């Protein structure tokens, strides 16, 4: 683990390996500190590659033996390095047998084979398999796996691996074994094993073609009552992929396993998905509506990978978005369809709410990334540590790029492209070009220029100008694109940007659109393709000046620069027929007000909220024809991370003052409306996870937030009562959060009661940690959140070695609470550096994620910048720093 020499890997350096592996036969003698792995490899020369030695990767392995064709290697035939073995082989085929010894107990990285709560689990993406045995550990090597697990029956009564169970039985000394065979060749990153004391919820289903499949959700004993929703989600995902893409489950059994210690969300290992427990376990008393929603989408995401990722995989890790962008797009579409189906007549609104959620994530996480030192195209050109490239850009912007293809080609064209992609590449490891070429060929459409989305970093700006000609009733729209330079990429070429456009008439109704040269008016929304630096469109046949509604449904991942005065934003807030844009108009208006308040706070001027804004806001609040879920979105102020990105220079303390002030004002001035709303909404009866109920709960919780922010007595009383009498976690936690963020005197007692009730429930405690770390503070005299976070590190429920705990406490503080983290005296940054260094010694991937919290430091006020730099430098100089954290801090300091 040395930073200075972490080599940079270049995308264009790709070359196929001289040798590949056809079959691998693995035997695991499981033992806490000395697991012995015997690997038999059937290797073959790759006819498509230049001749060369057979290459194997390894990391942290103790090699006990290596034989070639059953014999000890000839002198000089094997060159061994720390992480590489090279073997000269004659002929075109060879069998290797390698025995290694590994220590799962000591593996704190959670990559490779590790232990969690007494069990054994693996995580191999991206490069964890090399921590298990020597192997050409890259995704273009696809082998057929057979796996024998042998372990102590009392410790691990359940032995699982990929594919089908072919044999099991008892052995002497209380041990037992199981043998698994995966019929599909796969890259090593999709290998998995689980050996633990678990129980399963089981279900048998028929696939579309009538094959019976066994579905299992494996959890710790005692959690069986929290698996139903994950199972339901899995069945829905199966059906959806059959109906939408004609894709069926290809195995006889499909397993999901929940594990408490996991770096990421979940992993799509073939037939044996391993999940962070938080994306499996749910029951009304412990999980919120949002948790239920996330479980549904993550279960679907991993299931969808079976085709987009596993059957067709990535040639190299630069192609990561090939599987991730496409699979995120698929899970987003799935969730939107599920929500729309449940919402019935309100289906369109439900879809818009899902789109709003997705765009919030993109703007909060991906836009800042694309504007900072880590900016990279969805297909990066280079990396030092691949684990650092599981990013919002590869995932979320990658999904937006796929969505644009879907928009440009239409649902049928997209489906035809998918069909062609599978017909060409099933069973292969391919590139993003292969995917886009299939789309292109299936639709007879040139997508060469579109490929620039894969190569260019940075969020494009699209500037819009409108010209109204009253004399001939025409409206000319000029769109101009510009992408700011990003590190290492100063020149940007024009992209293909689909811009969905509508024109709104003075009465608020959409106008039929007729472009110059067209015979008759048509639809009220249409997609314009901006494929040059600047283009113009002339709409004709209009009787009055229209109000443009641009980028409807967020048709491209860009920043729209459109000059609109307050009155126009208020008009679109009230009238835009595109629900996404209606929400966006509210966000833009709120952003304008908040940034102005922030500037006033920074300069010590008096604060005040424009009356017109309150009126526009109140109209949405009072409009009970609107779906509650949509109203909850439209009345929630823009996120802090997004706003800081738009603040020049970023001043988190001033922005926080502005947020607290605006929240309290909207609560105070509109108190009667908020209270009426909580009384007027029909309270859902017994808890069920359903979008209509969830929307009502979200809106009530939002009302409590405003009422508590304003300390309206009737509202704080209501929050307290709801906290005490809640029948489900959504209500209970919503009320608690309102009390805490309102910094009310009742908050401490409520936090203590919550802790008492859930002290033995790790997942619920994560919420408790996250809430306190993300808390807003109203009075300068109150205990700083930093002090509280420091104290919570010592709570018996906390552990630095559990990623969920780290994300809940430290992640929430560093990333979700800028107003409290960025302290002018630098004490927050010193604490950050201490924690990053401590984490890095045990788990570099988690440490690197925390390290990223400060990468955009150059955008902050001079005082903060001066306080950040020495801490970044301290981390960079830390003894034994991992390449993971090294890459992040080096880029931040560049
Ligand atoms: N491939 C996983 C997913 O997106 C994410 C993951 C990456 C999990 C690396 C673990 C390690 O579904
Ligand atoms: Zn994924």
UniProtKB/TrEMBL annotation:
All residue ranges annotated as the Peptidase M1 alanyl aminopeptidase Ig-like fold domain in the record: 458-561
**InterPro entries assigned to the protein according to its UniProt record, in alphabetical order:** Aminopeptidase_N-like_N, Aminopeptidase_N-like_N_sf, PepN_Ig-like_sf, Peptidase_M1, Peptidase_M1_dom, Peptidase_M1_pepN, Peptidase_M1_pepN_C, Peptidase_M1_pepN_C_sf
Q: Which Pfam families match?
A: DUF3458, DUF3458_C, Peptidase_M1, Peptidase_M1_N
The alphabetized UniProt keywords are: Aminopeptidase, Hydrolase, Metal-binding, Metalloprotease, Protease, Zinc
The cofactor named in the record is:
Zn(2+)
Catalysis: reaction(s): Release of an N-terminal amino acid, Xaa-|-Yaa- from a peptide, amide or arylamide. Xaa is preferably Ala, but may be most amino acids including Pro (slow action). When a terminal hydrophobic residue is followed by a prolyl residue, the two may be released as an intact Xaa-Pro dipeptide
Domain Peptidase M1 membrane alanine aminopeptidase: residue ranges: 230-453
BP GO terms, sorted: proteolysis
Residue span, Aminopeptidase N-like N-terminal domain? 93-190
One GO molecular-function entry = zinc ion binding
First-tier enzyme category under EC? hydrolase
Q: What is its EC number?
A: 3.4.11.2
According to the entry, every stretch annotated as the Peptidase M1 alanyl aminopeptidase C-terminal domain falls at 566-894
Family, according to the entry, reads as follows: Belongs to the peptidase M1 family.
Question: What name is this protein filed under?
Answer: Aminopeptidase N
Supply the source organism's classification. Bacteria, Pseudomonadati, Pseudomonadota, Betaproteobacteria, Rhodocyclales
């Amino acid at each position: 683990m040395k930073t200075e020499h972490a080599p940079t890997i270049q995308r264009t350096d790709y070359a196929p390996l001289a040798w590949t592996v056809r079959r691998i036969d693995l035997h695991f003698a499981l033992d806490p500190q000395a697991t012995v792995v015997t690997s038999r490899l059937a290797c073959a020369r790759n006819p498509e590659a230049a001749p060369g030695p057979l290459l194997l990767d390894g990391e942290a392995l103790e090699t006990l033996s290596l034989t070639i064709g059953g014999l000890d290697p000839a002198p000089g035939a094997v060159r061994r390095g720390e992480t590489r073995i090279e073997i000269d082989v004659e002929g075109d085929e060879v069998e290797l047998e390698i025995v290694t010894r590994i220590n799962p107990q000591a593996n704190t990285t959670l990559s490779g084979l590790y232990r969690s709560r007494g069990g054994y689990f693996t995580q191999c993406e991206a490069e964890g398999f090399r921590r298990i045995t020597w192997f050409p550990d890259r995704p273009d090597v696809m082998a057929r796996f057979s796996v024998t697990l042998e372990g102590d029956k009392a410790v691990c009564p359940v032995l699982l691996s990929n594919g089908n169970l072919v044999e099991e039985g008892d052995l002497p000394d209380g041990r037992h074994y199981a043998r698994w065979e995966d019929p599909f060749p796969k890259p090593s990153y999709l290998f998995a094993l689980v050996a633990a004391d678990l129980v399963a919820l089981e279900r048998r289903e028929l696939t579309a073609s009538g094959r019976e499949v066994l579905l299992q959700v494996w959890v710790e004993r005692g959690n069986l009552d929290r698996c139903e929703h994950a199972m339901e989600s899995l069945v829905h995902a199966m059906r959806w992929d059959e109906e939408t893409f004609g894709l069926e489950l290809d195995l006889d059994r499909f397993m999901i396993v929940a594990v408490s210690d996991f770096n990421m969300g979940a992993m799509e290992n073939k037939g044996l998905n391993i999940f962070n427990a938080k994306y499996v376990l749910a029951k009304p008393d412990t999980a919120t509506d949002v948790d239920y929603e996330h479980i549904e989408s993550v279960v679907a995401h991993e299931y969808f990978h079976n085709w987009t990722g596993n059957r067709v995989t990535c040639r190299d890790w630069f192609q990561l978005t090939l599987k991730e962008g496409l699979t995120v797009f698929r899970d987003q579409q799935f969730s939107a369809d599920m929500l729309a189906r449940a919402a019935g007549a309100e289906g369109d609104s439900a879809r818009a709410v899902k789109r709003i959620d997705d765009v919030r994530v993109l703007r909060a996480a991906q836009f800042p990334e694309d504007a900072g030192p880590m900016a990279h195209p969805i297909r990066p050109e280079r990396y030092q540590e691949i684990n650092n490239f599981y990013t919002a850009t590869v995932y979320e912007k990658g999904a937006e790029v796929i969505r644009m293809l879907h928009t440009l080609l239409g649902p049928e064209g997209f489906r035809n492209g998918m069909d062609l992609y599978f017909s060409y590449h099933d069973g292969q490891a391919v590139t993003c070009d292969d995917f886009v070429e299939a789309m292109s060929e299936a639709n007879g459409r040139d997508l060469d220029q579109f490929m620039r989305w894969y190569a260019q970093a940075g969020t494009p700006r699209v500037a819009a100008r409108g010209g109204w000609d009253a004399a001939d009733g025409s409206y000319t729209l000029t769109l101009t694109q510009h992408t700011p330079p990003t590190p290492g990429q100063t020149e940007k070429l024009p992209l293909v940007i689909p811009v969905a456009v509508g024109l709104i008439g003075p009465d608020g109704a959409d106008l039929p659109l007729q472009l110059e040269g067209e015979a008759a008016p048509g639809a009220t929304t249409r997609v314009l393709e901006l494929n040059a630096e600047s283009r113009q469109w002339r709409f004709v046949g209009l009787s009055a000046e229209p109000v443009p509604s641009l980028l409807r449904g967020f048709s491209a991942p860009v920043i729209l620069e459109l000059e609109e005065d307050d009155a126009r934003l208020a008009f679109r807030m009230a009238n835009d027929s595109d629900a996404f844009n209606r929400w966006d108009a509210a966000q833009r208006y709120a952003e304008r007000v908040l940034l102005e308040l922030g500037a006033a706070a920074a300069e010590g001027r008096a604060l005040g909220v424009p009356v017109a804004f309150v009126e526009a806001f109140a109209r949405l609040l009072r409009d009970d024809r609107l779906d509650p879920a949509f109203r909850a979105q439209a009345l929630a102020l823009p996120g802090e991370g997004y706003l800081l990105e738009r603040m020049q220079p970023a001043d988190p303390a001033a922005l926080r003052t502005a947020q607290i002030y605006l929240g309290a004002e909207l609560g105070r001035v509109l108190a009667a409306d908020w209270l009426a709303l909580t009384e007027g909404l029909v309270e859902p009866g017994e808890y069920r996870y359903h979008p209509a109920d969830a929307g009502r709960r979200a809106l009530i919780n939002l009302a409590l937030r405003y009422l508590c922010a304003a300390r309206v007595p009737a509202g704080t009383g209501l929050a307290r009562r709801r906290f005490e009498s809640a029948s489900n976690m959504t209500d209970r936690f919503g009320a608690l959060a309102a009390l805490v963020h309102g910094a009310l005197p009742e908050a401490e007692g409520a936090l203590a009661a919550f802790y008492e009730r859930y002290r033995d429930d790790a997942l619920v405690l994560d919420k408790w940690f996250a809430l306190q770390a993300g808390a807003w503070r109203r009075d300068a005299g109150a205990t700083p959140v930093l002090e509280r976070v420091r104290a919570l590190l010592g709570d018996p429920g906390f552990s630095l070695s559990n990623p969920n705990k780290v994300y809940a406490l430290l992640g929430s503080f560093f990333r979700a609470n800028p107003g409290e983290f960025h302290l002018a005296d630098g004490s927050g940054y010193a604490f950050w550096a201490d924690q990053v260094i401590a984490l890095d010694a045990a788990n570099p991937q988690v440490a690197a994620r925390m390290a990223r919290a400060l990468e955009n430091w150059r955008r902050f006020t001079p005082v903060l910048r001066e306080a950040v730099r020495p801490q970044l430098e301290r981390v960079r100089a830390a003894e034994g720093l991992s390449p993971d954290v090294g890459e992040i801090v080096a880029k931040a300091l560049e």
